[in-house]
Design goal:
The protein is of the alpha/beta class. It contains seven helices and nine strands. The protein has a seven-stranded mixed sheet, with helices on both faces. Helix 1 runs antiparallel to helix 3, helix 2 runs parallel beside helix 3 and helix 6 runs parallel beside helix 7. It starts with a helix and ends with a strand. 48% of the residues are buried. It binds S-adenosyl-L-homocysteine and magnesium ion. The site of S-adenosyl-L-homocysteine (SAH) has 22 residues, from helix 3 and strand 2.
Length: 211
Amino acid sequence: MSDPSWRDVAVATKGFMPVHEGDALHAAALTAGARLPGLPWLEVGSYCGRSTIWLGAAARDRDTVLFAVDHHRGSEENQVGWEHHDPTVVDARVGRMDTLPFFRAAVHDAGVEDNVVGVVGRSPVVARHWSTPLAFLFIDGGHGTEPARLDYEGWTPHVAMGGTLAVHDVFPDPADGGRPPYEQIFVPALESGRFRLESATGSLRILRRVD
Ligand code: SAH
Ligand code: MG
């Protein structure tokens, strides 16, 4: 690793990306950036910026930018009383989650601010107004059926030919985890004929746009 400091920040950042999957995400993004230089990348679901750093460091190496889309209010599964809730990311003033300050600090501390553009808003709203082809798309947003379906519909058409689609939390066996990223994103992408599977690391799937 030529510059371990950004990776140390990623590993220390709150979030849900296992280290070996973050490294695989980073490698896939570097490949995508070499295949399609000049096109931007986009992440749906940044939370506190953990996965964002692996992608942002790759974006810096490939001289491109990562748009990081999140409303920063947390997914259903991050709310009070749910399995993935962290009380330290609640804004007491508004009584709701706010991961934006954590995201901003993480991106700063990793030294990737120039290559990461935070987009604060609801994913389907941003997607509706998006028109730039993407070399790399990473979907790790809401894991309910409807949010996952909307991310598939709203974002995958923007992956450029030859570009990469990365999907997190893909669990073919329901015993391993929630199904929507598998049923609403991964399977439809393959069945559409537009994407081919390139690799799998843990629950991360890397697909390439072929049609
Ligand atoms: N990639 C992160 C984890 C993302 S958790 C990591 O590496 O740790 C999922 C994130 O998706 C949450 O931060 C939540 O706020 C965001 N999210 C869920 N539904 C969303 C929507 N409809 N629009 C924008 N962001 C959404
Ligand atoms: Mg995830």
